[in-house]
Amino acid sequence: xxxxxQINPNDDVLIALRDxxxxxxxxxxxxxxxxxxxxxxxxxxxAKGHALIKYGNVIGFLSKDVKKGxxxxxxxxxxxxxxxxxxxxxxxxxxxPPEPEERTFLGYPRKDGRVGTRNDxxxxxxxxxxxxxxxLIKATFLKSHPKLAGHIQVLIHPYGCSQLGDDLSTTQRLLxxxxxNPNAGATLVVGLGCENNRLSSFMSAMEPxxxxxxxxxxCQDVEDDIAYGVSLLEKLYEKIKDERRLACPLSDITLGLxxxxxxxxxxxxxxxxxxxxxxxxxxxxxKVALTxxxxxxxxxxxxxxxxxxxxxxxxTVRLIETFKAYYAKNGQPCYENPSPxxxxxxxxxxxxxx
Length: 354
Description:
Strand order of the largest sheet: 1-2-5-8
CATH topology of the largest domain: Ribose 5-phosphate Isomerase B, Chain: A
CATH architecture of the largest domain: 3-Layer(aba) Sandwich
Structural class: alpha/beta
Helix content: 25-40%
Radius of gyration: 26 Å
Largest sheet: 4 strands, antiparallel
Strand content: 15-25%
Distance between the termini: 27 Å
Oligomer: single chain
Number of helices: 9
Number of domains: 3
Shape: elongated
Number of strands: 18
């Protein structure tokens, strides 16, 4: 294994692939400091104010003069970001090359046209007050079906009571989205009876949905809410138990991405792999959901350069600028991310993390 790597030929730094020590000579460079795995080593002398390049992009400015072989981190590198919005430029994107053949995956087609990669039973409480009942319904059901332990999801939450207006409607939309998720072969919706998130309005707002695959009841309407819930879950299980995966086109996939524990090696390992996978799926007509908008700051122009057309570019600009304005409105800088753990792992600035 190599001791260091240079990600882009234009980069000013090497990345340590192991813990390196002061005085070591690596790639003809004498280290002037101890450098932990994932951290940056200066490739050449650089003056204070230099725009440091990593990944072929600026990740910040040097706050001090730096010598070849010196460790570069928070003590000598600062963010280039501030609350002011840069001028973004639309550049016509080069389309992704189409996949060479019609590739498929094994999934579960749903009536609404979407496809799941799992065939689970979901239990969705309309209000946090019935979280315990829903959990007990699952436990009771599993006594008869122990092999389904990993295939029943109780989506507990603390909401649904004493909520009004947009707060309530947002909670309702989120829970409806979960209840109709294509990874749910069938869903049991459980209400209490006195909550603001009324079961009747919840089920009405869920329309259209597959009435054979989504059942509901209120605990206060039945004598034994646990036994009744288990009986409904049994009915739903009968609907899905014999289903098998079918070959479906990649265009039916929706891939959700979520930030993990980032460090100086994330950009060498997991993230590029996810990017290549996203490119392949996108070229096949699939959808990839990228979240963590603040972790786009500093790399947003690179993201915008992948816009399929000018309308998409303008939507991305609005997304970024609205989020930055939110920070500014609340008197917060937009560049405080990364976290202490990110920095311990070698990430210095938000631009670098993005």
